[in-house]
Structure to design on (461 residues):
């Protein structure tokens, strides 16, 4: 190609400047060729990869949205289940606590009762024992006192019972008998 | 006072002298066999012919190749970035928005099932029309889609795509039979059949003219506004800010128009394909 002033071409240009709506078949030919080639080249080079990439991305977005939705649903389900379980567990534990408290209460009461009874029994036993011991002691004391009294009487008798006294006593008794 | 009158006369004179109206504007927007880099000279494009058929490379063909090349390179890098990760970043993000827009807002709802087959075509049309229009706003370049031959070629490809869609889903005979509304009286067919055949061609014809007119209109207006500065060269300093301001506004409007036209061309093609695919409507 030639760059420069070319008068003959200039003349041609002004000469050929006919009507603006002149349809040049050569231009149609080249435009069709250019456009068809452009379309196929772009289809291969640009449109196909771009459109598949867009489709891929749209699909991946759709899929991930669906997945997220599914995951959300699942999570909600699990949450609900967990809540249910938790509520059940709570109830159970409450029940358990209640039961154990009741049991403990019962046990306490029973133990208290038992210990009271035991204590009563111990007290009773102790009283009985004390009574018994006191009785034996009393019995012993009595016998001892009697013995001591007899001994003392014996002693006194041994010391003071001479002839005169004996005679006096005998007299008293005889008097009494005679009176009767 | 006299000065002003003289100036006006001068203006009228220059306007009359440059008769042929805005011939230079037409030359600017029309196709040619050279690429102008005024004031640095120009690039000559080769003349070619095939079987006696003139297939010279013209300015618009050259720029359509540049547009195609830019699209291939940029979109190749965009596509490659997906290999690294599916998460878009930077430029990829930008293109992804457009691609998803074309897919989900244009092609999917209008064609429905089996839209994947037409998606590459629509994406290519959309990006080509969009970038061709935007590239045409760059100084020294030229609006490819402002050439009626280019838009005619695009519309022709759309036409083929529409027929292909119809034949593909309804069968060859089924499609052409389906073009005629069922339950028509026999005698009406004489009118209906030519009308329907005409209807097949008016759709892409409208596509062709719409895109061409929209693309060229903005440029013609911008160039006209700039031209005002030279026509009113005596008041150039007064006219220039207004002209530049207005042309800047049209320039920005043109960006909007290019976006809309890229959307409309793609949308209507998709709609026509959808109509051909679902004939029962």
């Amino acid at each position: 190609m030639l760059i420069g002033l070319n008068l003959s071409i200039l003349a041609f240009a002004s000469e050929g400047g006919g009507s603006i709506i002149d349809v040049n078949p050569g231009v149609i030919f080249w435009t069709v060729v250019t456009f068809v080639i452009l379309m196929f080249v772009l289809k291969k080079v640009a449109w196909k990869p771009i459109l598949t990439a867009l489709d891929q991305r749209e699909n991946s977005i759709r899929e991930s949205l669906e997945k997220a939705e599914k995951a959300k649903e699942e999570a909600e389900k699990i949450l609900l289940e967990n809540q249910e379980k938790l509520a059940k567990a709570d109830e159970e534990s409450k029940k358990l606590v209640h039961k154990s408290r009741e049991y403990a209460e019962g046990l306490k009461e029973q133990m208290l009762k038992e210990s009271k009874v035991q204590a009563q029994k111990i007290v009773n036993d102790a009283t009985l024992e004390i009574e018994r011991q006191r009785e034996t002691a009393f019995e012993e004391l009595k016998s001892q006192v009697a013995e001591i009294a007899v001994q003392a009487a014996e002693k006194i008798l041994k010391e003071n019972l001479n002839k005169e006294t004996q005679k006096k006593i005998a007299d008293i008794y005889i008097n009494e008998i005679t009176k009767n | 006072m006299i000065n002003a009158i003289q100036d006006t006369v001068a203006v009228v004179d220059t306007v009359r002298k440059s008769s042929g109206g805005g011939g230079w504007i037409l030359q600017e927007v029309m196709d040619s066999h050279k690429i102008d880099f005024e004031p640095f000279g120009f690039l000559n494009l080769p003349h070619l012919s095939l079987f006696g058929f003139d297939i010279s490379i013209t300015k618009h063909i050259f720029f359509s190749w540049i547009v195609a090349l830019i699209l291939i390179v940029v979109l190749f890098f965009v596509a490659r970035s997906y290999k690294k990760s599916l998460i878009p970043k930077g430029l990829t993000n930008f293109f992804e928005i457009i691609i998803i827009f074309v897919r989900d807002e244009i092609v999917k709802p209008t064609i429905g099932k089996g839209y994947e087959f037409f998606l590459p075509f629509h994406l290519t049309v959309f990006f080509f029309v969009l970038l061709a229009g935007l590239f045409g706003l760059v100084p020294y370049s030229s609006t490819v889609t402002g050439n009626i031959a280019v838009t005619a070629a695009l519309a022709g490809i759309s036409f083929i795509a529409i027929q292909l869609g119809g034949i593909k889903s309804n069968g060859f005979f089924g499609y052409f039979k389906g073009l005629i509304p069922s339950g028509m009286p026999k005698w009406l067919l004489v009118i209906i059949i030519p009308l329907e055949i005409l209807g097949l061609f008016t759709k892409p014809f409208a596509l062709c003219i719409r895109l061409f007119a929209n693309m060229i209109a903005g440029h013609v207006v911008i160039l006209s506004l700039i031209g005002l500065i030279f026509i009113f060269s005596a008041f150039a300093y007064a006219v220039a800010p207004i002209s530049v301001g207005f042309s800047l506004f049209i320039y920005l409007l043109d960006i909007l128009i290019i976006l809309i036209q890229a959307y409309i061309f793609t949308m209507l093609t998709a709609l026509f394909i959808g109509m051909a695919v679902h004939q029962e409507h």
User: Anything to note?
Assistant: Chain A has one domain: 26-179. Residues 32 and 73 of chain A are 56 Å apart (CA to CA). Residues 26-179 of chain A form one domain.
